[in-house]
Amino acid sequence: MTNELRHSIVVLTYAREDILAQTLARLADHLVGRDDYELIVVDNNPDRHDRQTLLNRFHQAHVLWDGANKGVVARNLGLAAARGRHIVLLDDDVFIETPDFLDILGARFDADPRLAAVTVSKYVRGDTRRRVDLVPHTDKSVDLTRPFETFRFVGGCVGFRAQALQQTGGFLPDFFYGLEEIELSYRLIDAGWKILYEPAVVCEELEHPAGRRPKRLVQADRLTNKLIISFLHMPAPHVWINFLAFPPYAFFFAKGEMDVFRALRQFAAWLRKPGRPRRKPIRAQTQDYIRACGGSLWR
Question: Which residues have a Cβ under 8 Å from the Cβ of 69 and sit 6 or more positions away?
Fold first, then answer.
């Protein structure tokens, strides 16, 4: 193997010590004999844990911890510290099943200099349904057995070109949890980058309940964030369609487990927030890219 540091693997963790140990053990099995990567564990726990035993199997590994739960934006700490040309973001309850995942992702980035992100095949343990929330597209019937260009990525396990993240910035600090991937996707494609779905890399997600808030509150946060994303990035008239159509659509999708009025109050509070991001609708070229991928602008 080369001594060049091609890959940084960033794992965000909170309140899942036993699961994290399993995630890292499986990851270490895939990386035996490699020296072209580093592992960065971003620790959102308020208390510091000694994880040196877990890290000993990795070529280069360290932990970032500052004693506060920052939510999903804490990933930005790992992105800022990463030294690899490619960055893999991995959740602490996601098991990568493909041993040569770094080689597959690296080959995809090498083949297309405008590729910003590679989103992968993911399934939830014990769930035999087609999970539409895991489909990186607005057409939920898209063929997931083949690669395709798309305009959004699904979290849990995703590869990035570090250059693209440096140009567009990391995750929006306004989001504590929920749909942060879609917001970042808009900024990436609006800057002229591409996103690819690659089914050759497969992951299993546990959706472990540790550290999660009640579903009704989580779904309200997701709706709030969807409204923020629409306000920031959707051109007219699609922004108004989103505001009118998405709350009942999301309520139905959540099977009623959503506090819509809480979401609307949170969005109104965000609008009044000093220093919040300004509205910047995506360009006409970006809209054309979404349509060329077979996507819909309203959802």
Answer: 14, 44, 45, 46
With contact defined as beta carbons under 8 Å apart, do 224 and 266 qualify? yes
Sequence spans of domains, the chain: 7-205, 215-292
Q: Cα separation of 44 and 275, whole Å?
A: 25
Pairing verdict, β 7-13 and 37-43: parallel
| Residue 142 · residue 294 · CB < 8 Å | yes
CA 258 to chain centre: 22
Q: Which residues of 240-250 are buried (b: 16+ CB within 10 A; e: fewer)?
A: eebbeebbeeb
Q: Helix, strand or coil for residue 229?
A: helix
Task: Give per-10-residue mean pLDDT for the chain (299 aa).
Answer: 77 95 97 97 94 93 94 96 98 97 98 98 93 94 97 97 96 93 98 98 90 80 92 90 76 73 93 96 97 89
The DSSP-derived string for 131-168 is -GGG-SSS-TTS-TTS-EEES---SSEEEEEHHHHHHH
Q: How far apart are CA 164 and CA 169, in angstroms?
A: 8
Q: Please give the single-letter amino acid code of residue 20.
A: L
CATH of the domain spanning 7-205:
3.90.550.10
CA–CA separation, 154 vs 205, rounded Å? Answer: 12
- Contact call for residues 220 and 211 (beta carbons, < 8 A): no
CA distances to 181, 182, 227, 233, 297 from 240, rounded to whole Å, are 22, 18, 10, 12, 11
Q: In whole angstroms, what separates CA 28 from the centre of its chain?
A: 22
Question: For residue 253, what pLDDT is reported?
Answer: 67
Instruction: Name the pTM for this structure.
Output: 0.93
Q: How far apart are CA 95 and CA 6, in angstroms?
A: 21
Query: Which token pair is 218?
Result: 């989580």
With a CB cutoff of 8 Å and minimum separation 6, the contacts of 191 are 164, 167, 168
